């Protein structure tokens, strides 16, 4: 066999000599995977992530204990100062819907840390060799974290009811507040996924996340009314998505105008997802 013939044969992955190279299958081509298969992949990967939590129950400590600690601290430390001594029930109805917004943001931070850790362990490299949609790996993470968020929210509301929380509207309004928090929390997860894929270590992800979290949480209406804030800070809180979410959840539970806050929250969630989700999927494909 001549050298030319051998070169032709080795140029492709298979096929007869002289037939030209055979184009390899690209497992990262999401467009070749149907919706049903994609949903099946998301379900399998979500089950894998849930089993990881089952094998490591300590990973649920933040979702279980954080809402208990936060509501007790804020009600008994700040409640008397803001609502007056002996009026903790008033502050419980104010702060609990705000803490629902805060829970979503804190749980979302864990997604980025988990993604970064999975890359360090080589788990994501194995997923990228499989003929599955790359977005399904990330969406499965979000699905499981939403489950953790719902557990944290249920514990928060349970503690709220023990401390005097009352629903002045209806159960449907309460469910709407929970759903709105979940939608916004899912959008935030894309930000932290992108951070987890972009930064080199889990510590860096946590540090950057805190830089994002602190101004948004405390420069908002989550813990106290904004009317006593300086004008420039009050303007910031008006556009802060956490303020809009907290106000929407608060008015859904306590009664009051909700249209503006709800639409602002949904608008923020849509804008964050549209911008960061494609960037996160693209980064996931290219990350080495």
Overview of this protein structure:
- The protein is mainly alpha-helical and 288 residues long.
- The chain has one domain.
- Helix content is 76%, strand content 0%.
- It has eleven helices and no strands.
- Helix 4 packs parallel to helix 7.
- The longest helix is centred in the middle third of the chain and has 34 residues, at 88-121.
- It starts with a helix and ends with a helix.
- The relative contact order is 0.12.
- Mean pLDDT is 82; it is low at 1-31.
- Residues 1-23 are annotated as: Disordered.
- The chain crosses the membrane at residues 63-82, 94-116, 137-165, 171-197, 209-233, 262-281.
Keywords, please?
11 helices; mainly alpha; 288 residues
The low-confidence runs, each spanning 5 or more residues with pLDDT under 50, are 1-31
Indicate the radius of gyration in whole angstroms: 24 Å
The domain tally reads 1
Distance between the termini: 40 Å
Backbone structural class: mainly alpha
Order of helices and strands: HHHHHHHHHHH
Shape: elongated
Q: Report the portion of residues in β strands.
A: under 5%
Helix content: over 70%
Largest β-sheet summary: none
Mean pLDDT: 82
Please give the count of helices. 11
Give me the count of strands.
Answer: 0
Give the assembly state of these chains: single chain
Protein name: Transport permease protein
Membrane topology: Multi-pass membrane protein
Family: Belongs to the ABC-2 integral membrane protein family.
Transmembrane segments: 63-82, 94-116, 137-165, 171-197, 209-233, 262-281
């Amino acid at each position: 066999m001549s050298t030319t013939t051998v070169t032709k044969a080795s140029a492709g992955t298979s096929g007869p000599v002289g037939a030209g190279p055979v184009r390899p299958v690209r497992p990262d081509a999401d467009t070749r995977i149907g919706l049903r298969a994609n949903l099946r992949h998301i379900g399998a990967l979500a089950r894998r992530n849930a089993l990881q939590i089952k094998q490591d129950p300590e990973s649920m400590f933040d979702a279980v204990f954080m809402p208990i600690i936060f509501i007790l601290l804020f009600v008994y430390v700040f409640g008397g100062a803001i609502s007056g001594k002996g009026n903790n029930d008033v502050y419980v109805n104010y702060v609990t819907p705000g803490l629902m917004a805060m829970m979503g943001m804190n749980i979302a931070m864990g997604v980025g840390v988990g993604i970064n850790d999975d890359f360090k362990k080589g788990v994501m490299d194995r997923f990228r060799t499989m003929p599955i949609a790359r977005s399904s790996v990330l969406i499965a993470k979000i699905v499981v974290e939403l489950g953790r968020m719902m557990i944290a929210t249920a514990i928060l509301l349970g503690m709220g009811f023990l401390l005097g929380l009352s629903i002045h509207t209806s159960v449907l309004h309460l469910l709407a507040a929970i759903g709105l928090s979940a939608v916004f929390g899912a959008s935030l997860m894309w930000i932290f996924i992108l951070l987890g894929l972009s930064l080199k270590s889990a510590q860096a992800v946590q540090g950057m996340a805190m830089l994002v979290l602190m101004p948004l949480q405390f420069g908002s209406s989550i813990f106290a009314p904004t009317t006593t804030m300086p004008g420039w800070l009050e303007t910031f809180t008006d556009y802060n998505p956490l303020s809009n979410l907290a106000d929407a959840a608060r008015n859904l539970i306590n009664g009051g105008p909700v249209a503006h806050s709800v639409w602002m929250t949904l608008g923020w969630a849509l804008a964050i997802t549209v911008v960061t989700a494609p960037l996160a999927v693209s980064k996931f494909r290219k990350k080495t």
